[in-house]
Amino acid sequence: MAKKRKLPLVYQPVGFALGWASGALAGLAFRKAWKAIRHEDDAPDALDRDRGWGEVLLAAAVQGAIFAAARSAADRTGAKAIERSTGVWPAKEKGGRD
User: Fold this and answer.
1) Which residue in 27, 29, 31, 59 has the most C-beta neighbors within 10 A?
2) Who's near 48: CB < 8 A, 6+ residues apart?
3) 97: pLDDT confidence band, cut at 50, 70 and 90?
């Protein structure tokens, strides 16, 4: 039982590394997706005065979806790897992050 309580602490550095890598890959994927969608190198941000609401919200929605998918894939990959190597799932029975 003690092993089960300690594992999330051990998983934290793995989760951090996977989260960092997934964020970097998601950023690259977003830039490529935006170029494919709008044929522009730079996506608008909320404070871009020359862009309309539609463009800004579209960019935010696409970016959010890509980052959420990448983070979920990284979290799941790390959890499965920990489970394979230790036999214990690195999270509480129900629920996940937060």
Assistant:
1) 59
2) 56
3) low
Q: How many residues does the chain have?
A: 98
CB hemisphere CA count around 94 (13 angstroms) = 0
The whole-number average pLDDT for the span 52-74 is: 95
Long-range contacts from 80-85, C-beta under 8 angstroms, 24+ separation: 81/14, 82/7, 82/10, 82/11, 82/14
C-alpha 77 chain-centroid distance: 12
Which residues have C-beta within 8 Å of that of residue 88, sequence separation ≥ 6? Answer: 3, 4, 7, 82
Q: How far apart are the first and last CA of the chain?
A: 22
Q: Where are the domains of the chain?
A: 10-86
